[in-house]
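User: Can you help me understand a structure? I only have the sequence.
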Amino acid sequence: MKKNVLLVEDARDIQLLVRTALGDLVHLKCVETVDQANKELHQSDYALMLLDVTLPDANGFDFCKRLRSEEEFAELPIFFLTGKDETASKVAGFNSGADDYVTKPFDPEELAARVMARLGRKGQGQNQSQEIFQVDGYRVDLVQHKIFQRQASGEDEYLPLTPLEFRLLSLFLRNEGKVFPRQELLRLFWGDDVYVSRNTVDTHISSLRKKMGADGTAIKSIFKKGYSFTRSSSSTKKTAPTKEETPSTKQPLAH
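Assistant: Let's start by predicting it. Here is the structure, written out as tokens:
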């Protein structure tokens, strides 16, 4: 069962990145202020909270300390997700009661691995680690950064992907059918501060397709829109067995 995760972040682009990173792994609720977050926490059950430090109405460190002083939220996993990467800020975050501290820009796959690893440890009686997810024909290990492809023989074969190809395919598998503009892929995997040409995305997609074999055709280029991972539903036609014509036996006429 998917768990509820609360993201407290006022930047819409970061909300989109987190939503893309976590995909269908959790139920994600986004709010933009501490006041909204406080109301959400008291109205619904959340398994984890991602918290920015600089928010419109309050400081994330102070909010975290306040929650830790309340018995109801003393054990709530809290991850800071912030652009403050100084050592002093990290120390302040952990001193305020945070369980983890992730700096921006962040790797979407790493964030997903951290979140799911924490939720997996917190859950009781779970037989299957949530650090691994499966989609038809694929098994993705978010911690080991490995993807296995189901073969016709029924065995799973490891795909020798580069780190960036792993992140691309993981993103597509978790968001099948969604169209990702090239510009969004550039921002997700290279960031806004690094200049790379749009052809860079095409080059990596081409390499990924080759490594996926016949399944590579599922990564489709949508004219003037971007890329989408869409597998055509294979409809198996059943042909009715032909009846063998048997000669009719006529009963002899009674004399």
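Now, to help you interpret it: The chain has two domains: 4-122, 132-229. Residues 122-129, 234-255 have pLDDT under 50 and may be disordered. Let me know which part you'd like to focus on.
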